[in-house]
Amino acid sequence: MTVKITIGAINKEHGSSKKYKTGGWRSVCPVVDLEKCISCYKCYDYCPDAAIKKIEDGIEYDLDYCKGCGICAAECPVKAIVMVKEEK
Amino acid sequence: MTQNEDIELFASGHRACAGCGEGTAVRQILKVAGPNTIATICTGCLEVVSTGYPETAWEIPLIHAAFENSASVASGVEVALKELGRKEGVNVLAFGGDGGTFDIGLQALSGMLERGHDITYICLDNEAYMNTGIQRCSSTPYGASTTTSPSGKYSIGESKQKKPIAAICAAHGIPYTATANIAYINDLKKKVKKAIETEGPSFLHVFAPCPTGWRHGSDDTIEIGRLAVQTGVFVLWEAVDGDICNLKVTVMPKKRKPVEEYLKRQKRFAHLTEEDIAKIQQEVDEKCDRYGLPKRE
Q1: CB-based contact B98:B127 (threshold 8 Å)
Q2: CA-based nearest distance B15→chain A, Å
Q3: Which one of A85, B56, B108, B198 has the largest count of C-beta atoms within 10 Å of its C-beta?
Q4: Is residue A51 within 8 Å of residue A61, measured between CB atoms?
Q5: HEC profile for chain A?
Protein backbone atom coordinates (compact mmCIF):
# COMPACT_ATOMS: atom_id res chain seq x y z
CA MET A 1 0.00 0.00 0.00
CA THR A 2 1.36 3.40 -0.92
CA VAL A 3 0.53 6.26 1.38
CA LYS A 4 0.25 9.77 -0.05
CA ILE A 5 1.61 12.17 2.54
CA THR A 6 -0.40 15.37 2.69
CA ILE A 7 1.12 18.80 3.31
CA GLY A 8 1.89 19.07 7.02
CA ALA A 9 0.82 15.42 7.35
CA ILE A 10 -2.69 16.70 8.04
CA ASN A 11 -5.16 13.85 8.35
CA LYS A 12 -8.74 14.93 7.75
CA GLU A 13 -10.22 11.46 8.12
CA HIS A 14 -11.08 11.41 11.82
CA GLY A 15 -11.64 8.06 13.52
CA SER A 16 -10.06 6.24 10.58
CA SER A 17 -8.38 3.72 12.90
CA LYS A 18 -11.67 1.82 12.59
CA LYS A 19 -10.39 0.52 9.25
CA TYR A 20 -8.00 -1.68 11.22
CA LYS A 21 -9.82 -4.57 12.85
CA THR A 22 -8.09 -5.35 16.14
CA GLY A 23 -10.41 -8.33 16.72
CA GLY A 24 -7.78 -10.52 15.05
CA TRP A 25 -5.55 -10.12 18.13
CA ARG A 26 -8.00 -12.01 20.29
CA SER A 27 -7.26 -15.44 21.75
CA VAL A 28 -10.21 -15.54 24.16
CA CYS A 29 -13.65 -14.23 23.31
CA PRO A 30 -16.20 -12.70 25.70
CA VAL A 31 -19.66 -14.28 25.82
CA VAL A 32 -22.42 -12.50 27.72
CA ASP A 33 -25.41 -14.18 29.34
CA LEU A 34 -28.15 -11.57 28.89
CA GLU A 35 -30.38 -13.43 31.37
CA LYS A 36 -27.90 -12.57 34.13
CA CYS A 37 -26.98 -9.08 32.85
CA ILE A 38 -28.34 -6.26 35.01
CA SER A 39 -27.45 -3.47 32.53
CA CYS A 40 -25.11 -1.68 34.92
CA TYR A 41 -22.78 -0.98 31.95
CA LYS A 42 -19.62 -1.29 34.02
CA CYS A 43 -18.12 -3.37 31.17
CA TYR A 44 -19.02 -0.60 28.73
CA ASP A 45 -17.34 2.01 30.93
CA TYR A 46 -14.14 0.04 31.48
CA CYS A 47 -13.64 -1.33 27.93
CA PRO A 48 -10.41 0.22 26.56
CA ASP A 49 -11.42 -0.42 22.96
CA ALA A 50 -15.01 0.85 22.81
CA ALA A 51 -15.94 -2.66 21.66
CA ILE A 52 -19.10 -2.88 23.78
CA LYS A 53 -22.36 -1.33 22.64
CA LYS A 54 -25.27 -0.59 24.96
CA ILE A 55 -28.51 -2.22 23.83
CA GLU A 56 -31.87 -2.38 25.52
CA ASP A 57 -31.56 -4.72 28.54
CA GLY A 58 -27.91 -5.51 28.06
CA ILE A 59 -24.84 -5.18 25.94
CA GLU A 60 -23.53 -6.35 22.60
CA TYR A 61 -19.91 -6.95 21.55
CA ASP A 62 -18.30 -5.57 18.44
CA LEU A 63 -15.98 -8.51 17.83
CA ASP A 64 -14.24 -6.65 14.99
CA TYR A 65 -12.44 -4.62 17.67
CA CYS A 66 -12.55 -6.64 20.92
CA LYS A 67 -8.97 -7.65 21.76
CA GLY A 68 -10.11 -10.21 24.34
CA CYS A 69 -8.45 -8.53 27.32
CA GLY A 70 -11.12 -9.85 29.71
CA ILE A 71 -11.61 -6.63 31.72
CA CYS A 72 -15.39 -6.84 31.15
CA ALA A 73 -15.57 -10.40 32.52
CA ALA A 74 -13.37 -9.51 35.52
CA GLU A 75 -15.39 -6.41 36.41
CA CYS A 76 -18.92 -7.77 35.85
CA PRO A 77 -20.60 -7.65 39.29
CA VAL A 78 -22.96 -10.56 38.49
CA LYS A 79 -20.47 -12.68 36.52
CA ALA A 80 -22.61 -12.59 33.39
CA ILE A 81 -19.58 -12.57 31.08
CA VAL A 82 -17.25 -15.51 30.50
CA MET A 83 -14.14 -15.65 28.33
CA VAL A 84 -14.17 -18.58 25.90
CA LYS A 85 -11.11 -19.79 24.00
CA GLU A 86 -11.22 -18.83 20.31
CA GLU A 87 -11.30 -21.80 17.99
CA LYS A 88 -10.53 -21.39 14.34
CA MET B 1 -23.51 21.94 28.61
CA THR B 2 -24.10 18.23 29.09
CA GLN B 3 -22.61 15.98 26.45
CA ASN B 4 -24.09 12.90 24.91
CA GLU B 5 -21.77 10.46 26.61
CA ASP B 6 -22.66 7.55 24.34
CA ILE B 7 -20.69 9.15 21.49
CA GLU B 8 -17.20 7.69 21.24
CA LEU B 9 -14.56 10.32 20.51
CA PHE B 10 -11.68 7.86 20.83
CA ALA B 11 -12.40 5.32 18.11
CA SER B 12 -11.94 1.56 18.12
CA GLY B 13 -9.10 0.12 16.09
CA HIS B 14 -6.35 1.90 18.02
CA ARG B 15 -3.30 -0.27 18.64
CA ALA B 16 -3.09 -0.18 22.43
CA CYS B 17 -2.23 -3.52 24.03
CA ALA B 18 -5.16 -5.65 25.17
CA GLY B 19 -6.21 -4.40 28.60
CA CYS B 20 -4.45 -1.01 28.30
CA GLY B 21 -5.51 1.38 31.05
CA GLU B 22 -4.90 4.43 28.84
CA GLY B 23 -7.58 3.31 26.37
CA THR B 24 -10.19 3.43 29.13
CA ALA B 25 -8.84 6.72 30.47
CA VAL B 26 -8.86 8.60 27.15
CA ARG B 27 -12.30 7.28 26.17
CA GLN B 28 -13.81 8.49 29.43
CA ILE B 29 -11.98 11.82 29.46
CA LEU B 30 -13.14 12.66 25.93
CA LYS B 31 -16.72 11.68 26.78
CA VAL B 32 -16.69 14.43 29.41
CA ALA B 33 -14.78 16.96 27.29
CA GLY B 34 -17.09 16.48 24.30
CA PRO B 35 -16.61 17.27 20.61
CA ASN B 36 -15.76 20.97 21.08
CA THR B 37 -12.27 20.06 22.20
CA ILE B 38 -8.81 20.51 20.72
CA ALA B 39 -6.15 18.15 22.03
CA THR B 40 -2.39 18.00 21.84
CA ILE B 41 -0.36 14.87 22.50
CA CYS B 42 3.33 14.34 22.90
CA THR B 43 5.38 11.27 22.13
CA GLY B 44 4.39 8.29 24.20
CA CYS B 45 2.21 5.22 24.20
CA LEU B 46 -0.89 7.27 23.47
CA GLU B 47 0.61 8.84 20.36
CA VAL B 48 2.03 5.55 19.07
CA VAL B 49 -1.19 3.58 19.49
CA SER B 50 -3.68 6.21 18.32
CA THR B 51 -2.02 8.00 15.39
CA GLY B 52 -0.43 5.45 13.08
CA TYR B 53 -0.33 7.58 9.89
CA PRO B 54 -2.48 7.72 7.76
CA GLU B 55 -4.96 6.63 10.40
CA THR B 56 -6.11 8.28 13.60
CA ALA B 57 -8.31 7.11 16.45
CA TRP B 58 -9.25 10.68 17.36
CA GLU B 59 -12.64 12.15 16.48
CA ILE B 60 -11.59 15.63 17.61
CA PRO B 61 -8.89 18.01 16.27
CA LEU B 62 -5.51 16.80 17.45
CA ILE B 63 -1.96 18.07 17.13
CA HIS B 64 0.94 15.75 17.64
CA ALA B 65 3.81 17.62 19.29
CA ALA B 66 7.35 16.51 20.06
CA PHE B 67 8.19 14.67 23.25
CA GLU B 68 8.75 17.70 25.47
CA ASN B 69 6.19 20.20 24.28
CA SER B 70 2.59 19.02 24.54
CA ALA B 71 2.08 21.86 27.06
CA SER B 72 3.73 24.56 24.94
CA VAL B 73 1.84 23.58 21.76
CA ALA B 74 -1.40 23.62 23.76
CA SER B 75 -0.40 27.09 25.04
CA GLY B 76 -0.06 28.27 21.44
CA VAL B 77 -3.44 26.78 20.52
CA GLU B 78 -5.09 28.52 23.47
CA VAL B 79 -3.53 31.93 22.72
CA ALA B 80 -4.43 31.64 19.02
CA LEU B 81 -8.05 30.81 19.87
CA LYS B 82 -8.23 33.81 22.21
CA GLU B 83 -6.67 36.14 19.62
CA LEU B 84 -9.14 34.96 17.00
CA GLY B 85 -12.01 35.35 19.45
CA ARG B 86 -12.93 31.69 19.19
CA LYS B 87 -12.03 30.41 22.66
CA GLU B 88 -15.60 30.58 23.97
CA GLY B 89 -16.96 27.03 24.39
CA VAL B 90 -13.78 25.33 23.20
CA ASN B 91 -11.77 23.14 25.57
CA VAL B 92 -8.04 22.75 25.12
CA LEU B 93 -6.62 19.51 26.48
CA ALA B 94 -2.93 18.65 26.58
CA PHE B 95 -2.13 14.95 26.94
CA GLY B 96 1.21 13.59 28.04
CA GLY B 97 2.47 10.27 29.26
CA ASP B 98 4.50 10.01 32.43
CA GLY B 99 7.76 10.27 30.45
CA GLY B 100 6.51 13.37 28.63
CA THR B 101 5.32 14.94 31.89
CA PHE B 102 7.54 13.85 34.79
CA ASP B 103 10.85 13.89 32.87
CA ILE B 104 10.95 15.38 29.41
CA GLY B 105 8.04 17.82 29.35
CA LEU B 106 8.35 19.19 32.88
CA GLN B 107 9.77 22.60 31.95
CA ALA B 108 7.17 23.13 29.19
CA LEU B 109 4.45 22.11 31.62
CA SER B 110 5.80 24.42 34.32
CA GLY B 111 5.84 27.30 31.81
CA MET B 112 2.25 26.59 30.79
CA LEU B 113 1.12 26.59 34.44
CA GLU B 114 3.08 29.74 35.24
CA ARG B 115 1.69 31.69 32.26
CA GLY B 116 -1.85 30.79 33.32
CA HIS B 117 -3.27 29.43 30.07
CA ASP B 118 -6.82 28.06 30.15
CA ILE B 119 -5.74 24.47 29.50
CA THR B 120 -6.36 21.13 31.16
CA TYR B 121 -3.15 19.12 31.22
CA ILE B 122 -3.69 15.38 31.60
CA CYS B 123 -0.82 13.10 32.53
CA LEU B 124 -1.53 9.42 31.82
CA ASP B 125 0.81 7.63 34.18
CA ASN B 126 1.84 4.02 33.52
CA GLU B 127 5.04 4.40 35.53
CA ALA B 128 7.76 3.89 32.88
CA TYR B 129 8.62 4.48 29.20
CA MET B 130 6.40 1.63 28.04
CA ASN B 131 6.23 1.93 24.25
CA THR B 132 10.01 1.92 23.81
CA GLY B 133 10.44 -1.15 26.03
CA ILE B 134 9.78 -0.43 29.71
CA GLN B 135 12.64 1.93 30.62
CA ARG B 136 12.53 3.52 34.07
CA CYS B 137 11.24 7.05 34.50
CA SER B 138 11.01 9.43 37.46
CA SER B 139 7.46 8.10 37.81
CA THR B 140 8.61 4.51 38.37
CA PRO B 141 7.96 3.49 41.98
CA TYR B 142 10.62 2.16 44.35
CA GLY B 143 11.31 -1.53 43.84
CA ALA B 144 9.87 -1.93 40.33
CA SER B 145 11.99 -3.93 37.91
CA THR B 146 12.31 -2.31 34.46
CA THR B 147 14.71 -2.93 31.58
CA THR B 148 16.95 -0.05 32.71
CA SER B 149 16.53 -0.73 36.44
CA PRO B 150 16.56 -4.54 36.41
CA SER B 151 16.30 -6.42 39.67
CA GLY B 152 19.13 -8.78 40.51
CA LYS B 153 21.73 -9.81 43.02
CA TYR B 154 22.94 -6.23 43.61
CA SER B 155 19.82 -4.31 42.61
CA ILE B 156 16.35 -4.00 44.05
CA GLY B 157 15.10 -2.64 40.73
CA GLU B 158 14.18 1.04 40.70
CA SER B 159 16.00 2.61 43.65
CA LYS B 160 14.35 6.07 43.69
CA GLN B 161 10.97 7.19 44.92
CA LYS B 162 8.21 8.30 42.57
CA LYS B 163 8.26 12.04 41.84
CA PRO B 164 5.21 13.80 43.38
CA ILE B 165 4.19 15.42 40.11
CA ALA B 166 0.71 16.56 41.12
CA ALA B 167 2.09 18.31 44.21
CA ILE B 168 4.79 19.96 42.06
CA CYS B 169 2.09 21.27 39.71
CA ALA B 170 -0.13 22.39 42.59
CA ALA B 171 2.84 24.29 44.03
CA HIS B 172 2.56 26.64 41.02
CA GLY B 173 -0.64 27.88 42.66
CA ILE B 174 -2.84 26.76 39.75
CA PRO B 175 -6.63 26.84 40.21
CA TYR B 176 -7.21 23.07 40.10
CA THR B 177 -5.02 20.00 40.60
CA ALA B 178 -6.24 16.43 41.06
CA THR B 179 -5.15 12.81 40.95
CA ALA B 180 -7.47 10.23 39.41
CA ASN B 181 -7.56 6.53 38.65
CA ILE B 182 -9.29 4.57 35.88
CA ALA B 183 -10.79 2.14 38.41
CA TYR B 184 -12.83 5.05 39.84
CA ILE B 185 -14.51 6.32 36.70
CA ASN B 186 -17.13 8.55 38.33
CA ASP B 187 -14.43 10.26 40.39
CA LEU B 188 -12.28 10.62 37.24
CA LYS B 189 -15.15 12.11 35.24
CA LYS B 190 -16.07 14.57 37.99
CA LYS B 191 -12.48 15.77 38.14
CA VAL B 192 -12.21 16.14 34.36
CA LYS B 193 -15.42 18.19 34.39
CA LYS B 194 -14.14 20.41 37.20
CA ALA B 195 -10.76 20.83 35.51
CA ILE B 196 -12.34 21.84 32.21
CA GLU B 197 -14.79 24.23 33.84
CA THR B 198 -12.01 25.90 35.82
CA GLU B 199 -10.71 29.12 34.29
CA GLY B 200 -6.97 28.91 33.91
CA PRO B 201 -4.59 25.98 34.04
CA SER B 202 -5.50 22.69 35.67
CA PHE B 203 -3.55 19.48 36.05
CA LEU B 204 -4.85 15.91 36.26
CA HIS B 205 -2.61 12.99 37.17
CA VAL B 206 -4.36 9.85 35.91
CA PHE B 207 -3.12 6.47 37.12
CA ALA B 208 -3.37 3.94 34.26
CA PRO B 209 -2.07 0.39 34.88
CA CYS B 210 -0.12 -1.25 32.06
CA PRO B 211 -0.38 -5.06 31.66
CA THR B 212 2.68 -5.16 29.38
CA GLY B 213 5.08 -3.22 31.58
CA TRP B 214 3.76 -4.13 35.01
CA ARG B 215 3.41 -7.72 33.90
CA HIS B 216 -0.04 -8.54 35.19
CA GLY B 217 -2.95 -10.21 33.41
CA SER B 218 -4.74 -8.03 30.84
CA ASP B 219 -8.02 -8.59 32.73
CA ASP B 220 -6.44 -7.33 35.99
CA THR B 221 -5.96 -3.70 34.88
CA ILE B 222 -8.92 -2.24 36.74
CA GLU B 223 -8.40 -4.38 39.85
CA ILE B 224 -4.75 -3.26 40.09
CA GLY B 225 -5.88 0.36 39.85
CA ARG B 226 -8.43 -0.23 42.58
CA LEU B 227 -5.87 -1.94 44.83
CA ALA B 228 -3.49 1.01 44.39
CA VAL B 229 -6.15 3.22 46.00
CA GLN B 230 -7.29 0.71 48.63
CA THR B 231 -3.75 0.09 49.82
CA GLY B 232 -2.87 3.79 49.85
CA VAL B 233 -0.15 3.46 47.20
CA PHE B 234 -1.97 6.04 45.05
CA VAL B 235 -4.08 8.60 46.91
CA LEU B 236 -6.99 10.28 45.10
CA TRP B 237 -7.13 13.96 46.00
CA GLU B 238 -7.91 17.37 44.62
CA ALA B 239 -6.58 20.81 45.55
CA VAL B 240 -7.98 24.23 44.71
CA ASP B 241 -5.71 27.23 44.06
CA GLY B 242 -2.64 25.13 44.76
CA ASP B 243 -3.53 24.88 48.44
CA ILE B 244 -1.97 21.45 49.04
CA CYS B 245 -2.11 21.97 52.81
CA ASN B 246 -5.91 21.81 52.53
CA LEU B 247 -6.27 19.20 49.83
CA LYS B 248 -9.36 17.04 49.81
CA VAL B 249 -9.06 13.25 49.62
CA THR B 250 -11.95 12.26 47.30
CA VAL B 251 -11.90 8.47 47.67
CA MET B 252 -11.25 7.42 51.26
CA PRO B 253 -10.74 3.65 51.67
CA LYS B 254 -12.69 2.42 54.74
CA LYS B 255 -9.88 0.11 55.76
CA ARG B 256 -6.48 0.21 54.16
CA LYS B 257 -5.29 -3.10 52.70
CA PRO B 258 -1.67 -4.23 53.13
CA VAL B 259 0.51 -3.02 50.28
CA GLU B 260 1.54 -6.61 49.59
CA GLU B 261 -1.86 -7.26 47.98
CA TYR B 262 -1.05 -4.63 45.38
CA LEU B 263 2.57 -5.67 44.85
CA LYS B 264 2.10 -9.43 44.62
CA ARG B 265 -0.22 -9.20 41.60
CA GLN B 266 2.47 -7.60 39.44
CA LYS B 267 5.53 -9.46 38.20
CA ARG B 268 7.59 -6.24 38.15
CA PHE B 269 7.61 -6.56 41.96
CA ALA B 270 7.98 -10.37 42.04
CA HIS B 271 11.61 -10.23 43.26
CA LEU B 272 10.84 -8.20 46.42
CA THR B 273 11.69 -9.89 49.71
CA GLU B 274 9.62 -9.61 52.89
CA GLU B 275 11.98 -6.90 54.19
CA ASP B 276 11.63 -4.94 50.94
CA ILE B 277 7.84 -5.12 51.19
CA ALA B 278 7.99 -4.07 54.86
CA LYS B 279 10.06 -1.03 53.84
CA ILE B 280 7.57 -0.06 51.12
CA GLN B 281 4.71 -0.61 53.57
CA GLN B 282 6.34 1.71 56.08
CA GLU B 283 6.76 4.44 53.47
CA VAL B 284 3.16 4.05 52.33
CA ASP B 285 1.98 4.18 55.97
CA GLU B 286 3.87 7.43 56.56
CA LYS B 287 2.44 8.94 53.36
CA CYS B 288 -1.10 7.86 54.27
CA ASP B 289 -0.76 9.42 57.73
CA ARG B 290 0.07 12.73 56.06
CA TYR B 291 -3.06 12.45 53.88
CA GLY B 292 -5.21 11.42 56.86
CA LEU B 293 -6.08 7.99 55.46
CA PRO B 294 -7.24 5.27 57.88
CA LYS B 295 -4.80 2.89 59.55
CA ARG B 296 -3.91 -0.40 57.92
CA GLU B 297 -6.04 -3.53 58.45
Answers
A1: yes
A2: 7
A3: B108
A4: yes
A5: CCCCCCHHHCCCCCCHHHHCCHHHHCCEEEEECCCCCCCCCHHHHHCCCCCEEEECCEEEECCCCCCCCCHHHHHCCCCCEEEEECCC
Q: For residue B23, what is the nearest residue in chain A, using CA coordinates?
A: A48
Report long-range pairs for B265-268 (Cβ below 8 Å, ≥24 apart).
B265/B216, B265/B220, B265/B223, B265/B224, B265/B227, B266/B214, B266/B215, B266/B216, B266/B224, B267/B214, B267/B215, B267/B216, B268/B144, B268/B145, B268/B146, B268/B157, B268/B213, B268/B214, B268/B215
Asked whether the beta carbons of residue B57 and residue A69 sit closer than 8 angstroms, the reply is no
Share of chain B above pLDDT 90, in %: 95
CA nearest to B221 within chain A: A71
Rg (chain B; Cα; Å) = 18
Q: What is the DSSP track for B227-284? A: HHHHTTSS--EEEETT-GGG-EESS--SSBPPHHHHHTT-GGGTT--HHHHHHHHHHH
- Residue B56 C-alpha, separation from nearest chain A C-alpha, in angstroms: 5
- ipTM above threshold 0.90: yes
Select from A4, A11, A14, A17 the residue whose CB has the most chain B CBs within 10 Å, as the one to mutate to test that interface. A17
Question: Do the Cβ atoms of B16 and A49 come within 8 Å?
Answer: yes
> Domains in chain B, ordered, with CATH?
21-291 (3.40.50.970)
> What is the 8-class DSSP label of residue B103?
I
**CATH of A21-85 given 3.30.420.40, 3.30.70.20, 3.10.350.10, 3.20.20.70:** 3.30.70.20
Q: Suggest the residue from B12, B27, B221 to mutate for an interface test with chain A (most A CBs closer than 10 A).
A: B12
The pLDDT confidence band at residue A3, using thresholds 50, 70 and 90, is: confident
The residue in chain B having the minimum alpha-carbon distance to the alpha carbon of residue A67 is: B18
Chain B CB contacts of A15 below 8 Å? 11, 56-59
Alpha carbon separation from B163 to A36, B141, B151, B168, B195 (Å, rounded) = 44, 9, 20, 9, 22
CB nearest to A3's CB, from B17, B50, B54: B54
- Summarised one tens digit per residue, pLDDT across range A39-69 is 999 999 999 999 999 998 999 999 999 999 9
